[in-house]
Amino acid sequence: MLSRRALLLASVLAAIGRPLACVRASAAATSTIEDWSGATLGTHGVPPGWEKYETPRGHPAYDFTVMEDEGRRALALRSAGDHSTIAHAVHVDLAATPILTWTWKVVSLPRGADLRERATSDATGHLFVIWPRFPALLRSRLVGYVWDPALPIGTLVKSTKTGTVTFVVARSGEAGIGRWTEERHDVVADHRRIFGEAPEAPGAIALSIDTNDTRTNAEARFGRIAFTA
Predict the structure, then answer these.
(1) CATH number of the domain residue 122 falls in
(2) Average model confidence (pLDDT) for the chain?
């Protein structure tokens, strides 16, 4: 999972020169990155303001749909043996708004997934914060927030496929599956814990769902994503 992804980020961020939506976080208030209000209900595939973020051998299906669930607008991510990722460029002042918040509903986890093992390093819908650095393949930094089948909340897992990626277990196990949950994570504190220093401003966030190693199915839904104080 995520093999060579940091290198591919360069092409995504290059799209800033095209009409890719960039969100600038205000120092004075919470800044919404995405709430799906700009997309028509039923929109399928890559939603407006996002870009494909393909990975080698990922076989992305982009089985994503803008929907309403329990009265909230959301993006449903489904995977059946594929690895699909989309990215959204951001400009965020982490000194003013260091807390990443989002709502999600994990519908199902990929059977047999274990991020610690290269052969089974899959995950249901998850969210990345990305710091692109040159050369991208070696020096970019990606922090991914995942719902793991078993690992304790707060566990850090280095990607088995690229040294640029570290996962933070945000939720664990079956408790809460099928229910909307709100997350709040201090991105600055997580970056310090992983890399030993304060972060620069990130360049993008990404949403991903990955079952191409276990060849199973998974589904998750993401609601509003924002940075706040």
Answers:
(1) 2.60.120.260
(2) 89
